[in-house]
Amino acid sequence: MTLLITVFAAVICTVIWYKTAPKNEMRVGILCWMFWGASLMWLIDAIVEYTEVGAEFFTPSTADMINDSYLGLSVVALALVIWLVILLVSDPKGVIRAALTKKK
Amino acid sequence: MACFLIPAAEAVITTIAAKGIKAKEEKQIENVNLSAEETGESKIHFSRKLGWLNKLLWGGSALLAFEHIWHGEIVPYFPFLTAVKEGETAAMLSEMGSSGVMMAALVTTVWIGMLGISYIVEKRPSKAPDAAAEIQK
Known about the structure:
The complex is a heterodimer. Chain A has four helices and no strands. Chain A is elongated, with a radius of gyration of 18 Å. By secondary structure, chain A is mostly helical. Chain A has helices at residues 2-20, 29-53, 62-90, 95-101. Chain A is 77% helix and 0% strand. The relative contact order of chain A is 0.16. By secondary structure, chain B is mainly alpha-helical. Chain B has one domain. In chain B, α1 (5-32) packs antiparallel against α3 (46-70), α1 packs parallel to α5 (89-123) and α3 runs antiparallel to α5.
């Protein structure tokens, strides 16, 4: 489930990135790299697990599925927080700078 | 256990390499005194391409590190890795040598594929003017 959630996140981010390219003011590309990188690495984990347990890999218990989904959503949340911090620090649209230097 | 350390180690190496290559490329541009625009080239510098690999490796390693914290395989105190603390260092190293190396190899293979695609795209004439003309119609 973690792999599946991350792949979905990667695909959604890539579609958003493609739609907004070449402007990319929101720096969605950062999310694409993170999610695709993690997806590739978890794919190896999945393959290794499949070689160990066989077809059982595709029939996880409900508890395992819930735990993995929870982890997957937490990973997406962490990636979004990392992206947000990078976005606000780099401030490509100058919004933070404008807000801070705005005279009352 | 600690498989993400191999891609993270690769990320450190490629980041240092990218910085060195970027400095070299900037020096070359200064020496020739011609920018890519002046020469009419739309070539992507290798340091930028290496940056793609860096981002894949760093991003993936960061999220996998979180997963390892989630499963209690990384702890915030020495020796930081539960496997080392519990005397399973050999099993951990074995996993790093198998899963970790495979992860790094797969990410690098995908990046090589991206290099191939970018090479084809760079060789192909740009479609941008056509698209702009299409919009104006």
